[in-house]
Amino acid sequence: MRYVTAALRWFLFLVFFLFALKNHELVSLRFYFDLEWKLPLVLLLFVFFLAGAVIGLLALLPRIMRQRREVNAVLAELKALRGQDAVMPAVVGSSSTGAATPASAALTQAPRDAVAAGNP
């Protein structure tokens, strides 16, 4: 798989490099107030592609930050629950002998009864 990925990268590099060689002529980009830039076409395309990628990442930034906060909250809750498990292992249903406790038997039996009755 590593060789396929490397071959694909080289192929894409070659395609884009040949594209750049074919499109080296200058183009004019006109702004307001008679401001004009003359740049090679491939450079102009690259700049606008890069600007679009940056704008897209900035648009996703609020969602990424929100998801990061949610993940951190869930991890903190998991850590707190694991700390409780160390104090109260009988709640989880495991005992030192490996036998099920009455609480764990009731917890595992309830879903079986619901499925057997046809209430998933």
Description:
The chain contains 4 helices and 2 strands. The mean pLDDT is 79. It starts with a helix and ends with a helix. By secondary structure, the chain is mainly alpha-helical. Strands 1-2 form a two-stranded antiparallel sheet.
Spatial strand arrangement across the major sheet: 1-2
Order of helices and strands: HEEHHH
Counted by DSSP, the helix tally is 4
* Helix-strand makeup class: mainly alpha
The coarse overall form would be: elongated
The description of the largest β-sheet is:
2 strands, antiparallel
Q: Calculate the mean pLDDT score and round it.
A: 79
Residue windows where pLDDT falls under 50 for at least 5 positions:
none
- The termini sit apart by 43 Å
Output the radius of gyration.
30 Å
Total beta strand runs: 2
Write the layout of secondary structure elements.
Blueprint: H1 2-22, E1 26-30, E2 36-40, H2 41-87, H3 89-92, H4 102-116
Antiparallel strand pairs: 1-2
Task: Record keyword descriptors for this entry.
two-stranded antiparallel sheet; single chain; mainly alpha; 8% strand; 120 residues; elongated; 72% helix
In short:
The chain is mainly α and 120 residues long. The protein has helices spanning 2-22, 41-87, 89-92, 102-116, and strands at residues 26-30, 36-40.
